[in-house]
Specification:
The protein is mainly β. The protein is built from no helices and 20 strands. It is globular. The termini are far apart.
Length: about 230
């Protein structure tokens, strides 16, 4: 078997890297009946390395690509959806989460940090690499339908405090975001129902707490896509 291939197939895991080591966390199977809390790692600096299971597992059994961000050598898990283990070790759920966790390679457990206000999944998280984390958009699951969110919240890592910021111009889920040049760039996403997708590019300036819409949008509407910045 190829050492660089995970033994089991999981959809929508959270993927992140810390100090040259690649991590895949959570996800669900193709029938969406089994959610994963396991974390696997692959040392990309070692050509003979194999995927290894990392302990401890996440406290929640599902995450999505932009639910985990890396700040320095620490991974922060924001929100998500699925069954979860409560503080007493009892399995609960599934439900949409408003929880924030942190984990550093070598830690014995995921640390529980203050919750944000609006529980969300299918959102996008981003950090400035200095002291702040933002969670943008996402959706909540209702009994009959899903509702996209426009809310944005900011977390001060040193003070361990959340605060509300200016909302996205429109509700978005499954969008992408990144931080560059002291701005947050948001592209694409699902809005106003299950089959309506955005081709807009939104720009947020944290210093002024103002969103603007780029004059040039995407070439076509995108959802569930990837975006990255090469300095």
């Amino acid at each position: 078997m190829d050492n660089t291939v995970l033994e089991n197939v999981w959809y929508k895991p959270a993927v992140f890297a810390v100090n040259g080591v690649l991590y895949a966390a959570g996800g669900y199977d193709e029938d969406r009946q089994t959610y994963a809390s396991a974390v696997f790692s692959l040392d990309t600096t070692n050509e003979t390395a194999m995927w290894e299971k990392v302990y401890p597992s996440m406290r929640w059994q599902m995450s999505q690509m932009k639910s985990v961000i890396v700040h320095g050598d620490t991974a922060f898990l924001t929100g998500g959806f699925g069954p979860y283990i409560d503080d007493e070790g009892i399995k609960r759920g599934p439900k949409v989460s408003s929880q924030l966790w942190s984990w550093r390679p070598g830690d014995q457990q995921w640390k529980i940090l203050p919750e944000f206000t609006d529980a969300r999944m299918a959102h996008c998280s981003v950090t400035d690499g200095v002291n702040l984390i933002w969670v943008t958009g996402g959706k909540i699951k209702n009994s009959n339908s899903d509702k996209q969110l426009s809310s944005v919240e900011e977390y001060d890592i040193s003070k361990k405090v959340w605060r509300k910021r200016a909302p996205l111009p429109i509700p978005l889920a499954y969008h992408q975001c990144l931080y560059m040049n002291k701005m947050i760039i948001v592209t694409g996403g699902q809005t106003d129902g299950e089959n309506v997708y955005s081709d807009n590019i939104y720009i947020y300036t944290p210093e002024t707490d103002v969103w603007s819409t780029s004059n040039e949008g995407l070439l076509e509407p995108l959802v569930g896509h990837m975006m990255f910045y090469v300095p």
